[in-house]
Amino acid sequence: MSYSTYGSTGTWQEKLADKCREANYHPPVFQIVSDRRGGRTAWSSTVTVQGQQISARFWYDGQYVDNAKEDAAEVALKHLTGGSPTSPVQQGRHAW
């Protein structure tokens, strides 16, 4: 899969899984993490790829917890391909 393919449709999680399969890595393993902040809880994610744990860039409200996994997957994929993650503002994400 070439770098240009990553601009196509599909979630970052799917793209990361595809890249791991292509490189004969174990599938990525996601973990949701939380942090109590006053009366609310913020959510984020980490993903482990080839023994390296990579964190999402941002914390999210509970209703957007899947965005935390997408964020972590994007960071991990860009790490594997040597790119840099795009700004969440450009992606229209709902950060904490």
UniProtKB/TrEMBL annotation:
Gene3D superfamilies: 3.30.160.20. It comes from the Eukaryota. This is DRBM domain-containing protein. It comes from Calycina marina.
